Amino acid sequence: MASKPSVNRLRRLGLASVPALLACAFALPATASDKWPERPVRLIVNFAPGGAADVLGRAITPTMSQVLGQSVVVDNKPGANGNIGISETVRSAKDGYTLLLSSGGAVSINPLIYSRLGFNPDKDLIPVAAVARVHVFLETNPSVPAKNVAEFIQYLKANPGRLSYGSPGPGSSPHLAGEMFKRAAKVDATHVPYKGAGPALTDVLSGQLQYWFDPGPGLKQVEAGKLKLLAIGSPQRSPLLPNVPTLAESGLPGFDADSLFGVYAPAGTPKPVIEAVRNSIAKALEQKNVIDVINGLGATPAPMSQQDFIAHHPKERARFADLIKEIGLKVD
């Protein structure tokens, strides 16, 4: 009958096996997320070049590229108030090589105004990181004879239905700001939707549109004297433009049309990839040149936890739901 091994012998065998076990563990093949990124990453921007989303995307990608060790390339996919870019994102592989930079409105508000999206942003997208809180600014073409909000409202009332304003698309924060303004001021004007802020800005500058609610790109034209800035559509004045009054203090109490822009990934993207992207965006938002670009839009950098960014979306949807119902806004 074989004798039982001694306790000391068992201990020696157990200890001897530890290095072997560790070697096996380290020899396991790396997962795809461990190797990510091995090639350039595409950042879909779901609005046209020249708009706030495009400017923000091009501001953060150089630092993201440096941190991640691969190029992060902006790919503009405008149309349908951001739906085209969102749709392409959610149909992409869940491997971290396709990301989305979008306005919060396109993600939060579009489900209220489109009956056939073809995707569910609450289920098909992961909110990864907020980038900036984008404000809207009431600006007019210089041909409009108004120096302040009160005079502008009087001018609109004297010309009911004759003035037009543009926006990056139906349901965008500039569009909703325009509708909020019309109802609060009791005026009538025509909304003209575009495939992004850039084309709308072009037509305000040319005089084809008389005014708009600018998400930021038009501020440089204000500095150049090509547009007139009357007010900001935020609850408080901007520290960047302390002399510009809010619409709330200009006779329209409670006016708030701010929107949070951020980066999203297709649902199912590995958590380590999400964390790596978040880290690269956090680093970008620390760079002075990036902060300067964001401030140049009149916007505010918005670093926050992923949980807070996720929680923002239902709050934003609730904030605009009554207005959308009141005006009967449906695109399809």
TrEMBL record:
- Write down the InterPro entries for this protein, in alphabetical order: BUG, Bug_dom1
Q: Which residues cross the membrane?
A: none
Q: Which Gene3D superfamilies match?
A: Bordetella uptake gene, domain 1 (3.40.190.150), Periplasmic binding protein-like II (3.40.190.10)
Species source reads Comamonas testosteroni
Its keywords, alphabetically, are: Signal
- The keyword S-adenosyl-L-methionine is annotated on this UniProt entry: no
Family (UniProt): Belongs to the UPF0065 (bug) family.
| Cleavable signal peptide | 1-32
Recorded protein name is Tripartite tricarboxylate transporter substrate binding protein
Q: Which Pfam families match?
A: TctC
